[in-house]
Amino acid sequence: ISADFLSLFMQDATRARVLRALVLNEHEVFTVEQAGKRAGVSAKSAKTALTALIRLGIVRKSVVAGEKKAGAKKRLREVWFLDPHFPHARALAAFVREISPLRYDEVLDTLKKSGRLSVVVLSGSFVGDATRPADIVVAGDSMSERRMETAIRALEGIFGRELRYAAFPTAEFRYRLTVQDKLLRDTFDFPHRVLLDRTRSL
Fold it and tell me: Taking 70 as the threshold, does the pLDDT of residue 72 lie above it?
């Protein structure tokens, strides 16, 4: 695995992962648990990192009303988010994005744990277009849905954001290509990156 420069630069891998998660989801707010899940660290570690980022002025904390349960008052909850008024917010976000390049080998190595892959294509958020129907399109055989979910969650921890994916058996993928399936057309007719193609059909 290639070194994560942001972790080296900040001298704290957890803090780097939490910061990356917030930057790549800059318009969202997170509870400690959500921030930890998105960054792929424990809630306890996420809180320590968030507290340090608050001291630097990068992150803010607020209290909002949570979901109301029947017959109970709304509970308040703490949420954390990037401070849009931080003087270097734009420069910091650009820096984090610039030094967080896609690590394609990690994507393939992680997904290979889910089965025998024949196709892996990146789209959506990986190419800067969240309007695409999926971030990752996968085709393969002997794939386990449980292992695929585990692989996707692991990639979310690496890239600091939720990932949408579509997975098909190889035969079904070939058929969908033939009939101009909308999801595949909306992927391949727009910018995308083919990481693996053993079908030689792309």
Answer: no
**Secondary structure class of 19 (helix, strand, coil):** helix
138, 196 Cβ separation under 8 angstroms: no
Give the global pTM.
Answer: 0.64
Give the span between the Cα atoms of 122 and 140, in whole angstroms: 15
Please give the distance of CA 166 from its chain centroid, rounded to a whole number.
Answer: 15
User: Up-side HSE of residue 100: CA atoms within 13 Å toward CB?
Assistant: 22
Q: For the chain, what percent of residues have pLDDT higher than 70?
A: 93
Q: Per-residue pLDDT averaged across 50-57, rounded?
A: 96
Residue 64 near residue 77 (C-beta atoms within 8 A): yes
Q: How many residues appear in the chain?
A: 202
Token readout for 96 is: 């984090």
Contact present, 141 and 116 (Cβ < 8 Å): yes
